[in-house]
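Notebook entry, structure prediction.
Reason for the run: the old model in the group folder had no record of what sequence produced it. Starting over properly, with the input documented here first.
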Amino acid sequence: MTLNMAAMKRIFLYILCLGVMMTIPFAGIQGSDSGNVPFAAHFEDKTMRLDYFHSGNSDQEHFAVDRIVSDGKWAGGKTRLRDDLNLGLYRFEIFAKENDVLLFSGGFAGIFGEWQTTGEAKKEWGAFHESIRFPWPKKTVKVVIKKRDNLNRFVEIWNTEIDPGSRRVNPADLLHANNIFTVMENGPTEKKVDIVVLGDGYTKEEMGKFRGDTQRLIGAMFSVEPYKSRKADFNVRAVETPAPVSGVSRPHFGVFKRTPLSVHYSTFDSERYALTYDNRTVRDIASAVPYEATIILINERTYGGGGIYGLYASLAADNAFSDYLIIHEFGHHFAGLADEYYTSQVSYELDGKVTVEPWEPNVTALLDKDNFKWKDLVKPGTPIPTPWDKETFETYSISIQKERQRLRETRAKEEEMEALFQKEKEKEIEMFSKMKYAGAAGAFEGAAYLSKGMYRSAINCIMFTRDLTFCPVCQRSISRVIDRFTK
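New structure, fully documented this time:
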């Protein structure tokens, strides 16, 4: 799931008008952005992790430092230190205190950012634990967190200073007792994308199953493009986290358990949305290996999972559509891809008015049809917006959603839900294959939870349906992220 831009707009307008969450900015905080700095001159070859609490409601947000710790060896590259992908609802920047030179930056999203668009956030405050990770600085730095405003510009919302020699900074590495196994290793961490796989709801006796699930699902992900062609650019390692009980909490079904990572379904009261709020534990365990991306396998058959840019991807390992889930959710987490579907129920409160271009690379508000994100991939003569049999699709898709709701309400067996999804997939593939612009790049209305005013680049894509293929726009977006870590 990803954040809806219309809901964001309401939050940003309020923030800009009242300035409720701003702290006193540092002078000259924008700093210099003319090229990357030499790594060795500014950083040690280890990772600093800043843990903080992110709290507020639908109208405001606040930050408070929790702790600053060592997170192991630095896994990222040492040449491309400034993130130029322009992805994420948030962005963090690391400046040298002595001269305000920008040393490092990165885009990200978070659970708080999504929660802020729910109805619950209008009624009460929430607090979530979050982290940012960056190379260990040799001298005092300024840490700045920014958020997009109503014009999609990053605006500073919080800052703090970190002196690596301070008593509040813990340079000791965490000693790990968890078993680690390598799924795939293709070279040094600084030249590869490093993925860590964790599992929740696997007992000690089920560690063999965790290893098998990891091998199977990572194999599925690297069977599709662009991961297939760029497999040599990745390392994948897994960390075992044995649980005292099998499976995780499923509140909608009245099932509650205590597991190492605290993964639970019913996030934001959405039955299939499975996340963990225990960021500190996840980060501590993940730090046993070098990593830039995280996958959490859930030892459950019940369909579900989630993916948040820069945080993690989670998925049910035993569902008939687990292959789809890992590819789809990792697309959110790794490349910031938006959901392209729009007939399913979501927990976000959407007003349907789109006045700003979304940051996600695979959807557009088409505010300028002569100049949009993937215009270069559209063949001459293709009409923009691009016609497709939208009404026929919506009639069928809505009927499927009604049947899906009925099955959930009657507590039907998961086999029945899987059969419904298989039926839906086959019908959609047949339906799309007969449409005039099938396989072509264009701007097809209906995306990011909105039937009107948002467009996707292809009639079909794994971010739209359960067909296991990324459209060319998504493939290019993923490749650009891979390049950031490997070139």
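Summary: The two ends are 29 Å apart (CA to CA).
The old model has been moved to the deprecated folder.
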